[in-house]
Amino acid sequence: MGDLAIEWLGRVPYAAALELQQQRLAARRRGEATDALLLLEHPPTITFGRSARREHLLAGPAELRARGIEVHAAARGGDVTWHAPGQLVGYLVVDLAARGQRDAHRFLREIEAGLGAALAALGIASATRAGVTGVFVAPAAARARPRKLASIGIGLKGWVSWHGFALNVDLDLAGFDSIIACGLRDVEMTSIARELGAHTPPDLAERARAAVAGAFAKRF
Hints:
This protein is of the alpha/beta class. The chain has one domain: Bira Bifunctional Protein, Domain 2 (BirA Bifunctional Protein, domain 2, 2-Layer Sandwich), CATH 3.30.930. The chain has helices spanning 14-29, 61-66, 104-121, 192-196, 204-219, and strands spanning 4-11, 35-41, 45-48, 70-73, 80-83, 87-93, 126-129, 132-137, 147-157, 160-168, 188-189.
């Protein structure tokens, strides 16, 4: 199946990251590159997936411009989400056919499992929800409002994936007030730092990157 190349790219504007993904996607489809996980951050950005509804954007164009927030349509599954510094974005360029896994739903579950393993390494028990893609804090009580840590949305071209996940590490959660995240009105967005509270290590960003890289290298 080959190795998974994992790269940390730092903070990258959405358009530049999209162009890089397209280059990697084309190279992977030609057989000129290995599978890859591109890890990065975006400046304040809102993206709309293929199933997004415009009413899930709660801020108007003038307000978004004043706040320096870009808005982009994305060729991925899912609804609307928020990106900002302190969130770890992972773009997976993986040839599912070469891995004998022509199953997008299974691939999504593997991404969820990889993120779950990374969160466990950071001291957070996570869970998934039936019928909803993403990773949540394991509920403390049956009636607790779901708290979401990671959003996932992929695209496929010739069974090669692109796009991926956004893991909230230590970002300003107020940015999510501009949207109905993933179209889920009953869900509260949270972060690793918020869940760890006083136990948050000063090098959380580096630890989160290492945990995700280790979990995905092992799984993929």
